[in-house]
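Let us practice reading a record.
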Amino acid sequence: QVQLVESGGGLVQAGGSLRLSCAASGRTFSSYAMGWFRQPPGKERWFVAAISWSGSSTYYADSVKGRFTISRDNAKKTVYLQMNSLKPEDTAVYYCAAAPSGRSKLVELYRSYEYDYWGQGTQVTVSS
């Protein structure tokens, strides 16, 4: 069992930055690839970024490539999402999720069903 808790969301102006954190507890954090998803108001949940168990490989949705950076610190059992050049369309609830390492290829981790554990989400609002 893995418990995930996101933090760092808030209100920011367009062009600003935020860093989200996702703290894990429970089973070995480094056994899991991690992902970030987001769900805008009234819309489906969409993939944002994923990172391998070691942190050596990352994968991004085209909409955030070049603006967002996913990283992890296995010693702290935490995954981060650095979000720069934020746009109003980035407004959403952001969720982190954990997928058992080795079960799926990194490029398959855009699919929400690849993940076994989810956090409760943190709200990010970008004003224009």
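A brief commentary: The first strand starts at residue 2 and ends at 7.
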